[in-house]
Design brief:
alpha/beta, 2,3-Dihydroxybiphenyl 1,2-Dioxygenase, domain 1, globular
Length: about 120
């Protein structure tokens, strides 16, 4: 079995696509209508794929407080500074719980908790 993607219901498709393309760096691989008032977009390639689902009838998006998506970055401190500069909501300061790991949490436009992590050495 292979994991295919993770789906996130979004408030605004254009705002969410801009965030995941420009901030996270994921490539848009497909976008299409999925019935009246519904739209789906797929982002990412390789092992990181997400599906964004926008339904005009769904007015309340619930991302869940105990789930997050993790993305590896080259330099946590530089990425953290860039997010702050762009006005992205950060949920924590960068921290190092282990010698080879440094990370922080931020929020996407829908309230999805994202972890940005930098690793060095062996995993």
């Amino acid at each position: 079995m292979r994991f295919c993607w993770s789906t996130l219901a979004v408030k605004d498709m254009d705002e969410s696509l801009k965030f995941y393309q420009e901030i996270v760096g994921l490539k848009l691989t497909g976008r299409f209508g999925a019935g009246p008032g519904k739209e789906i977009a797929f982002l990412g390639d390789g092992d990181t794929k997400i599906e964004l689902l926008h339904d005009k009838e769904n007015k309340e998006i619930c991302t869940g407080k105990d789930i997050s998506w993790g993305f590896e970055v080259e330099n946590v401190d530089e990425f953290y500074a860039m997010l702050k500069e762009k006005g992205v909501k950060t949920l924590s300061e960068p921290e190092s719980p282990a010698p080879n790991t440094r990370f922080f949490f931020a929020s996407d436009p829908n309230g999805m908790k994202l972890q940005f992590v930098q690793t060095s050495g062996s995993h």
